Amino acid sequence: MGGLSRKWLWTLLLIVLLSAAACGNDGDKPANTPGPTAEAGSPSGSVSLGSGVGLNVGAGGGIGSGLPGCADPNDEECPMPLVMDLDGEIAAGGVSVRYPDRYFDAAPGEGEVLFVITPAENNKYERAIFEARFAESVEAALATLTEPETAQWTAGTLTGTIGVQRDETQDPPVITTVGAFTLDDGRAVVLTLTATGKYGWDVWSQVYVAMLNTLAVGAP
Length: 220
What we know:
By secondary structure, the protein is an alpha+beta fold. 18% of the residues lie in helices and 30% in strands. It starts with a helix and ends with a strand.
């Protein structure tokens, strides 16, 4: 069987497993209807890959420029990234974002964290956690990473930088992705993805990009 077929089978298997788990839990999952404090972006789960400069999260889920992840889209062990409907929304401190409510729970954060989006009970595969916060600047936000690979990025009306750091010393590996975008007052709004598991980043990278496209900042 060719590499492409194996990649599709891997992806289909994961989606089937997630869907099967979700069917038995949707009725028990409480509705998350936070009052939005900022106008959200497009509710669509579609991804505009042209919005990113330098990062390629296309077929194979890899980073074509050599950033962490599967750099070779022909690698049969690199799964295709998932595309999910962004059917949930969370807002706090003037920052809002849409996320896949079927597979994630959103809640207010603590301290500097505005809100956190964590895997729901029916999402038990290749973990991912999303967090939003403000930073003094884009540079300050990226300073939390150790020697990250970076690329310029545009998310809606926001422009900034994405940095990716892969920590192979942990088991399973941990990949931290920080998207930091400049605000008019010089600060930055930051959306961080921490993915664990052998394929964590490859599976959730496209969901992260789609969420960035809905990131919005307004009055707190």
